[in-house]
Predict the structure.
Amino acid sequence: MVKGTILIIDDEEKLRGALSRILELEGYRVFQASNAAKGYQILDQQKEIFLVITDVRLPEESGMQVLENVKKEYPHCEVILITAFGTIQDGVNAMKLGAFDYVTKGDGDDQILVTIERAMEKAKMHHRIIELEHKLKTRYNFDKILGDSKKINEAIYLARKVAPTDSTVLIEGETGTGKELFAQSIHSDSPRRHKTFVAVNCCAFPKELLESEIFGHKKGAFTGAISDKKGLFEEAHEGTFFLDEISEMNLDLQGKLLRVLEEQSYTRVGDTKPLRVNVRIIAATNRDLQKEIQQERFRSDLYYRLSVFKITIPPLRERKEDLSQMVDFFIRFYALKTNKTIIGYENPFLEKIRAYDWPGNTRELKNMIERAVILTNKNTLTADLLPKEISTFSQESGIKDFIGSLEELEKNHIQKILTLTKGNKTKASEILGIGIPTLYRKIEKYALD
């Protein structure tokens, strides 16, 4: 079994060949290059190379330059510099530029082999983390959405059906259920998949800046508009534009969005010339828009244009049969990320998770597993690693928590999330699915700690 693939760049053929033979005997696959240019050609062709060993003194381009270029163009690779004329300052500079190590020729095969093994392990770990992060954050494929329950499969079925069309889609669901993931998957399964997917959270910007962010502005349109700025609609031309938390958009801006939907045109802030745009719009909300219409906070004409095709993402408490699969995935992901060996969990750990109602849904579950993995000193996760609100939760206490006004419910939920995140406002806003400015307004409104 091949332990890994290595590229050696050295203009001294005998030394290069000798090191190559040693590494091949150790179980590595080795490529050789006599200069930097040949080394880059090999890196372009052999994507499985995870480690580059380069001499510091090379013809035309130094090993330091190779180090900089490899870390920039092939960031998955680790780099070890070797030299016959090592200095402490060169070693310091190499480490600052991202080298795994700086080795002097003649240090001995055993020492070099240990260094190479450690570098290869780090590179492989980094590669696995990148793959898992890609799967976790950019799963633009319906097949990779976690869960096999009836309710999540119904939502996936509807999303698959609408994806090949150009229809506007409204995705409904509580905070943390994965509405953006569904929007990304619809885009990737559509004819627009090779064009841009642009996402904006409508509660992440002050209302007066959201219009400029979406439509762009002309120089001098307002104080601080020192140059023309392209809007996100322009960036999404021929692609998909995802508007998350659409209910947070003010009524004036809703009217301008309606014009885009009806006429496929818009005007930059401070401009008079309309611009044509070809975009597919997917919107998402965690609110009941029909109730928002009744309270005159949302335009009914915009709602009917947005809700051509509605998809409702079920909350986690309604698909608890998916929990074990999701927990397994997040444990593997965070174990790799923290370089820990975790083989699973004890039964009480999963029982407590299944009993909990998960008001923050998948986002809250993911953050809880990350916390447990960081805290554990064992190779299994145990119930004592769970936050108090999960380990002590019961259906009776949950029902008591939900008795009261909507404002009391919101206040209590925000306080729970702030406690869970130990007051980290950025983390709390991510779990709640609201912008930092919105979170601060609610903290002030409810006088929360």
